[in-house]
Amino acid sequence: MKTFLFYFLISSFVIAQNIKEQKQFPNDRPISIIEKISHNLEILERDYLTKLSYRDYVRAKDILIETYDMLLAIPMPPTPTPIEEGPFPISEEEFNGLTTA
User: Fold this and answer.
1) CA–CA separation, 93 vs 10, rounded Å?
2) What is the pLDDT of residues 46-82, one digit of tens each?
3) Gyration radius of the chain's alpha carbons
4) Under a CB-based contact definition with an 8 Å cutoff, are residues 34 and 19 in contact?
5) Does pTM surpass 0.70?
6) Most exposed of 19, 30, 49, 93 (fewest Cβ within 10 Å)?
7) Chain centroid offset of residue 25 CA
């Protein structure tokens, strides 16, 4: 369990350093940061959790699942609507101004 916590803290530190120094997340969008955290958790699970004893693995897996649940609970900003290209309708006031002139 101590090993898992050590690796988790190390990966958290690395993520924080990447965010701070390299700005590798496009536009710092929350979704890209969440994807990166999720990716790092998958690496932890695949490469490090499997090396723990069964008892420690079960405990670490519970923490990992709880962390994934917390990631899913983060509210996402609404998806921006694309700006439409082409002609836009004019307002009724503008139309009336054109027809009365």
Assistant:
1) 62
2) 888 888 889 988 888 899 889 888 888 888 777 766 6
3) 24
4) no
5) no
6) 93
7) 10
